[in-house]
Amino acid sequence: MFVKHAWLTFYYGLARTRLQRYFTHFMQFVAAGFGISSVLVILLQCQPLSHVWTKDLVPPTEDGAKCINLINFFYANSIIMIVNDTVMYMMPVFMLQDVDMLRGHRWGIYALFGIGGVVVLASILRLLAVHQLAQGHHFSESYALVFLWAAVENHVGICAACGGAIKQKSLTAYDNIRRSYGSIRHKSWPTPSLVSRSQNTEDRSYYERTDSLPTPSLGVDRKDAGMRTELYDLQPVETQSAV
């Protein structure tokens, strides 16, 4: 019941017309009435209620108790559940048929609500288990299958109802991982040769200190050893004329 209310509450955000909102209200009322009535029928299946535990005693007790037929109740419950789930999971198809959106988004939403088809399938299998129980074949197995498929129906409905939130969280986590991987992949790392070269340069600059260099002698000029220019006085060469 509460899973159906969660789905129908989500449908209010998809409703675009007054008729759609009114129909969602009606489905809320049907879900609440169906859930409450099912619980009350199970709790008050016999009058007095103690006959539920004493009806199989041998010899049977004569207390004038009246009980409902549980097999007929299971049949009616399964059929109503199948019809209700089919209508509820088909509602988004009609609500979104005139909404402008990307085709991928549309089919993604349809696939999300299509998981509800598994819920309908579980309801059908539960109806088959009820039929086997009514025929008296393998009573223990059939009775267990009735409640097994009922549990599958409820749990799949819960997972489908949480599908939208799970999708959003999954996409956010995927984007964060992709950005982190891209930043690490495109980060510029220094090459090993550059690292060794910088290390050698640091070692050389560390050990080559001015106080460890040899001091020049006193007789040597401290001027910069640059290009030197020397001037030579050239004497003119005398030429002898021939007599």
TrEMBL record:
Keyword Membrane in record: yes
Ranges where the Rhodopsin domain occurs: 2-167
Keywords for this protein: Membrane, Transmembrane, Transmembrane helix
Top-rank taxon: Eukaryota
InterPro entries associated with the record: Rhodopsin_dom_fungi, SAT4-like
Annotated spans, Disordered: 192-222
Subcellular location: Membrane
Membrane topology listed for this record: Multi-pass membrane protein
Gene Ontology annotations for the cellular component aspect, listed alphabetically: membrane
Biased segments, Basic and acidic residues type: 200-211
Transmembrane helix in keyword set: yes
Regions annotated as coiled coil: none
TM spans (from-to): 26-46, 67-87, 107-129
Recorded family membership: Belongs to the SAT4 family.
The name this protein goes by in its record: Rhodopsin domain-containing protein
Organism expressing this protein natively: Exophiala viscosa
Highest classification ranks of the organism: Eukaryota, Fungi, Dikarya, Ascomycota, Pezizomycotina
